[in-house]
Amino acid sequence: MSKRQVAMVMDLNKCLGCQTCTIACKTLWTKREGMSHMYWNTVNTQPGTGTPLNYENMGGGFKDGVAQRGHRPTVEEFGKAWDFNHQEVAFGGKPDAHLMADGGHAGKGPNWDEDIGGGEYPNSYYFYLPRICNHCTHPACLEACPRKAIEKREEDGIVLINEDKCRGHRFCQEACPYKKIYYNEVEEVSQKCIFCYPRIDEGVTTACSRQCPGRIRFVGYLDDQEGPIFKLVHKYKVALPLHSEYGTRPNVFYVPPLSPPRLDENGDATDEPRIPTDYLISLFGPRVPDVLKKIEDERERVRNGETSELMDLLISRKWQDLFGPFTKHPRDAGRQMGQGSPVKFYKKGERP
User: Fold this and answer.
1) Terminus-to-terminus CA distance in the chain, angstroms?
2) 3-state percent helix, strand, coil for the chain, nearest multiple of 5
3) Is 312 helix (H, G, I), strand (E, B) or coil?
4) Which of 92, 242, 247, 262 is most solvent-facing, going by the fewest CB within 10 Å?
5) Per-residue CA distances from 47 to 115, 239, 245, 279, 280 (Å)
6) pLDDT grade, residue 336 (50/70/90)?
7) Dmax over Cα atoms in the chain, in whole Å?
8) Which residues in 194-208 are b (16+ Cβ under 10 Å) and which e?
């Protein structure tokens, strides 16, 4: 058990699907050989198959406390990088040529079905779901590794892979029910999100949260009663884990998305939400209706001229209030933090 647990909350009502978080992570951490297919941060369109393709049906995690064997995703299922028809568009001489990825509409990259969504007109819908490693309290990957190459940091609960110990057995990939562990076929080691721990050690929040233009990501410690994480997860109870039934106790939480109303055959709004509540429950568990009602009630209070700490927190008027104790600017940190350098597991204070 870790002494403390750093965690993240993402408010899905504010996610733009702009992928700024994805690019911030990728340009910082996945520049090495064998990492071109790795997106430690992904933003998928829901409802959709996600990445790796159909990861929700790949198994892993725990059931009644018993480890479940899962599928080991391939590079193709994660999605190889797209190739675009730049030559055809720029030099092909065809006035009707437009830029597109190979593989057609959905392509073969990590966002298999971006912006496709579900439902039928006029009640079609979708929302965005960013995902990183959940840095679980009960990590299935840690228990599955025969090399003991995966460790959970005592000071903050961040789960890391010691690449010096890893031998590429990939049992961690099978065990993780969220399939957020990648395999580097060049270096023959497993790699994944490290919650930007060199930044965290210096009091700087993660790259994905700091670069988010939608202000959707809150970062902090679960036990910090004055911090945003504690208030959203424990005080107001509006932030829920993704697929808690996997039994790993994830430490990334989500505020479920509100929904516009469904329209009837005359085009008039009904009392039924356009995003099916049952679908949200399948992702975030049975408390979804209570959470959505809580948010609606607090919004109504504000409309009536009352104050709401929860609404102020979710609106995030003060940007740095999102980051708990991790508010330092990267330029003021005491050392280089990442910059595409090799990422290996070091105990705090040991990293050169």
Assistant:
1) 26
2) 25, 15, 55
3) helix
4) 92
5) 10, 19, 19, 8, 10
6) low
7) 66
8) bbbbbbbbbebbbbb
What stretch of H or E contains 77? helix 75-78
Residue 346: the pLDDT is 42
Has residue 56 been placed in a domain?
yes
The residues that bridge with 264 in the sheet, in sequence order, are none
Nearest to 340 by CA among 38, 50, 105: 38
Give the DSSP H or E segment for 44.
strand 42-46
Work out the average pLDDT over 202-229: 97
Question: Does 145 reside within a domain?
Answer: yes
Residue 137 domain flag: yes
The predicted pLDDT at position 65 comes to: 92
- Tell me the pairing of strands 181-184 and 189-192: antiparallel
Residue 55 has a CB neighbour count (10 Å cut-off) of 24
7 with 222: CB under 8 angstroms?
yes
| Token representation of residue 135 | 């840095």
Distance CA 122, CA 120 (A): 6
Residue 340 has what pLDDT? 45
Count: domains in the chain? 1
Residue corresponding to tokens 């109870």? 237
* ∠ CA 55-142-205, rounded to 5°: 80
How do residues 90-122 score in pLDDT, each as one tens digit?
A: 998 888 888 777 655 445 667 778 888 999 999
Looking up residue 179, the CATH number of its domain turns out to be: 3.30.70.20
